[in-house]
Structure of Aspartate aminotransferase family protein:
Amino acid sequence: TTPSASAADPAAGAAVKAADRAHVFHSWSAQGLIDPLPIAGAEGSYFWDYDGNRYLDFSSQLVNTNIGHQHPKVVAAIQEQAAKLCTIAPGFAVDVRSEAARLVAERTPGDLDKIFFTNGGAEAVENAVRMARLHTGRAKVLSAYRSYHGATATAINLTGDPRRWPSDTASAGVIHFWGPFLYRSAFHAETEEQECERALAHLEQTIAFEGPQSIAAIILETVPGTAGIMVPPAGYLAGVREICDRHGIVFILDEVMAGFGRTGHWFAADHFGVTPDLLTFAKGVNSGYVPLGGVAISAEIAATFDQRPYPGGLTYSGHPLACASAVATMNAMAEEGIVENAADIGERVIGPALREIADRHPSVGEVRGLGVFWALDLVKNKETREPLVPYNASGAANAPMAEFAAACKRGGLWPFVNMNRTHVVPACTVTEAEAKEGLAALDEALTAADAHT
Ligand code: PMP
């Protein structure tokens, strides 16, 4: 099932690239400075280009192909649904949408039993915030620095990374606070317990100074992903839950990246025994085979919109092809033990190997994660923890990370790189042999980062 070098067709690849450069406008990019790799195909944990190079996908694209590329059951479900009913407005009752909602509700914690479908993560965040504002009659939303919630109007304001800066309207009632992150503690904490206690006290104080009666919601990624896979200390999320309850604030957990097996549970919230009022999801729900996201809604918030209309909707909400792929994905993940595989590979293979790699490489400051959701925090100096590249570096200042990424690709590994970090986020279906192959390539590529310590 792997592509052979004989499948290489550089001329076809050049044509694909030329066509791309003619009319495709790429996200997050200076259009004249990019060189997109033409892709010929993908299967399981791998994808390949037209030059005969095959890459082990340690990024899961944008951390979404939890079931791997081209899973046959999901491909078949999309084909069958396409033959039956390609599209229908959201107002109708359709078997495949009802089943997708049932399967999501069955997996989400607590009483999050009503599902509002969207086309992706940012729309899920937009709608969760709107629900919280209408439910509470309040406007402000608190979110964490070191977070990513999406690129639409409110979602980008909520985001706590530099991508917010150019489009921040500063008008959406968004307040940022510091979440827990012991390795780079905002609170000068030295233990997980201190970090947890001080982060909760800081949140309490932020709420007191903003005015609890003006705060509709607190939104957090259960395990912040893009910003660095920072597993929160035990007790933090339960503490936030208690604070929200005390002040009548809606607690939104964003599980767009952490959900559907990524952490070795169906949802990251399962690790902490915490149930939010609203839970946003996307990505892994159907591995992105057809765009899909959504909000899982508590009974209490759903009741707000029982006799009063919910003012929000999308032409493609609960799209039949997306829902069919979600049903097939969730069923295949259950039948094939894919969530259990993510937990097992993380605990037994990836975690121990990364810790051993960290011991040998001067550039690896910290290893953190769980399941198939890991980050290496790369540093110039292990003692001072100075990041390998400055915050939000680009161009020459970012050369150490660019050299590291290029070394990974030369070794047949497609990495996820963000600022001074590389994330190890393969498919939840990754085998032990594939994980070891990728870890060996990562190990070798890290010597390029070591050169800058
Ligand atoms: N929330 C989180 C936690 C995410 O990781 C992302 C995407 N990386 C989003 C929201 C936005 O999702 P989308 O790109 O599907 O709009």
Remarks:
- The CA atoms of residues 9 and 377 lie 38 Å apart.
- Residues 62, 120-122, 125, 148-150, 221, 225-226, 254, 256-257, 282, 293 surround 4'-deoxy-4'-aminopyridoxal-5'-phosphate (CB under 6 Å).
- The first strand starts at residue 39 and ends at 43.
